[in-house]
Amino acid sequence: MFHNGKKTIGVFLNRAEFDFQRNLCRALIESAERYDYNIAFMTSYEIRESENTYDVYGDIIVDFAPIEQFDAVVVALDTYDRATFRSRLVEALKSRASCPVVTFREKEDSFYGVLSNANESIRELVRHFKEVHKARNISFMSGFRDHYDSGRRLECYLNSMEEFGLPVYQNSVFYGDLWKNKGEEAFQYFFSDLSHRPDVVICANDFMARALCDAAAAHGVKVPQDLKVSGIDNAPESREIEPALTTVSADYQRMAAETIHLIDDLLHGRSREKYISVPSRIYYRESCGCLARNVVQSNQDRQNHYEQYAALMEEHTRNTYFKIDMAGCRNFGEMMNMICRNLPLIGNFDRFYLCLTGIHDMNGIPSFQRELPAEAEAVLRWENGEFQKTQSDPFPRQELLPYTAQENGPVSYYFTMLHDRASTFGYTAVSFRRPEDGIGMFYFDWNLTIALTINEYFAHQRIQALMQRNEKNSITDYLTQLNNRRGLARALKKNWPEWAAAHTEISFISVDLDGLKFINDHFGHEEGDRAICVISRTIQRIVPRGTVTARTGGDEFLILLMGGYAQAQHLEQQLEQELETLNHSNKGHFVVEASIGVYTTTIDAGISFQECMRQSDNEMYEKKRLRKKQRRS
Prior knowledge:
24 strands, four-stranded parallel beta sheet, alpha/beta
């Protein structure tokens, strides 16, 4: 894998654009490089509260990942919101992985684990609020009921409340969404019983803590004067908003280093403990009343926040223009050029691959299904600041990248599936120049634009091919693949004015299969069809390229030969000789013979097709009459 002879660690995580995930990726890359390991990040994008079909389909990354080929696996289970996704991933790792599997920040009985004691820090928060701030009514804002990390934090809260002899009321625990959408609902819940109005609310993450602070402010409840709030995770906005949040931070750098060190020991046969716990740190800030921010720092934070917001809006606008530009692409090459022009939207990347996983039909158009084929095709490769020509030959999908992607040193790539609600189109692979660079906020939106555009483009191609096939079928005789009467009429409509204007000499050659009724009656219609096809294939083989040919009736054919009578006679003799040779070599129950009539004329405005064909038919029928007469005698 990656064709550099180095071991590869597969890392599974969801929403790689979030701060925790970015810090995790950075720390893992830095540690893996020291041990000379590759990393393949298997990223996905799904949001629990949306529960839409697109998100549900995102677990195709489990099928895509070459779990059997990885030398080790790291999985951040707590980044997956949907329980079905998590359980499917865990079962796949149990059944398919033959290597060490390490969970990051969350314990799973079947795997090794590198854990943070951030959840246990909730005990210290409860003690702090009771002893330092003399709080007695301490509430807790949890996450989803079946979310592992939220459950562990709630458990720590309940145990700590019991340990310190603090009461837990009916309105002390609210189940949130681990995001910012339930701040108002949580506020109404906590303050529904004024006799048990909370002094403190500990939130299971910083996003919910911020949402609760905003809701409290809207109701005139001041933080920290009237209500003290704390979060967990030390997200960037916990430091930037007002009031700055008291929060708990895991030491991701040390956790990542412990993870890679654990993997290295296991790969080299060294025995290790199953679970490793890394201490966390509590940051006491304004939201619990322990630290007041000075005016200079507050103004600087506001300026930083404004700059980040402006950059985010600029990135959003550029991604919107990218969608519009992609929708306007008229062919595949233009689409690839448009992607190349917009690659800077990814960020400070080093290499980028776009690989498709469709199965090509007879027209060379890929079709896409949910199931992934065994091979992929790299249709775009960008490195060293420019587009690189790629071989169109497919490569084994489990290799992730084509052989031409080989590098000498350890590499780290982020893999993202391209799909919609029903089919998988392929995937992108990107590596960044520095470990601190990584997937940005709009990266998955950028990939979704590519996925939908690719699907729409090839769907249009398939429709066009179908229309062309239907059009061809409408003008083609199904048995012989020559023009039918409609196809002949179209060819005449297109060419006749030009022939007339140029006074073109044309020979009309009428061909009639002899004895078709006899063949059908005595040998069956299948043999009759075979005789018809013998005539049609012989005609197609001997006429010059571009000659208009047609099956005009059951056993009748027409050839419009550009040339004089001598050329027509030569073709007539060639047809008869070919049939004679075929009859001699086949030695069947019957012979295939034809009567041929020729009429040669110069086309001008006063000559009609019908008249020319009547003349050649008359010639052909006369020869047929003479042939029958000769047989009787």
